[in-house]
Amino acid sequence: MNVIPRDPRTVGREPDYRFTLANERTFLAWVRTSLALTAAGLGSIGLLDFAGSDLLGYSLLTLSVATAATSYSRWAANERAMRLGQSLPASRRPQLMATGTMTVALIATVLLIVNER
After folding, report:
1. How are the residues of the chain apportioned to helix, strand and coil, as percentages rounded to the nearest 5?
2. Residue 35 and residue 14: Cα distance in Å, rounded?
3. Angle, to 10 degrees, between the axis of helix 93-116 and the axis of helix 53-84?
4. CA-CA distances (angstroms) from residue 32 to 17, 67, 79, 101, 104?
5. CA-to-CA distance for 33 and 88, rounded, in angstroms?
6. How many CB atoms lie within 10 A of CB 46?
7. Which helix (H) or strand (E) holds 41?
8. Model confidence over 95-116: pLDDT tens digits?
9. Residues 37, 60 contacting (CB under 8 angstroms)
């Protein structure tokens, strides 16, 4: 099984360029989010000095890797569907991102409370 999807621009017909550009902007937003999570994770590990800051940093880095790893496949699936005149595929990525962000926020909150004592 190929982990990285083939170039979806080799199938179907060219969709309206506005949809292609919107899909690309969404892909770039996921990449920017991944970069921000990477910076936050590295900052937490390298700059914060309290018990558990490494856990917080590794949690952020894990979320970053998951975001980056799935962004291209989501772009490719959307592009392929548009080119073939199909409905866009359903995605659990927004739900997973929200859950991951909530989990990291809970970890940060607990660590801050514990380190206040």
Report:
1. 75, 0, 25
2. 30
3. 170
4. 22, 10, 20, 15, 18
5. 22
6. 11
7. helix 17-47
8. 999 999 999 999 999 998 998 8
9. yes
**What percentage of the chain carries pLDDT values higher than 70?**
97
User: Can you give the length of the chain in residues?
Assistant: 117
- Structure token digits, residue 8: 């979806």
- Per the listing, tokens 């018990």 go with 51
Report the candidate in 92, 67, 94, 90 with the shortest Cα–Cα distance to residue 77: 90
| Stated pTM of the model | 0.82
39: amino acid identity, one letter: A
* DSSP H or E segment with residue 33: helix 17-47
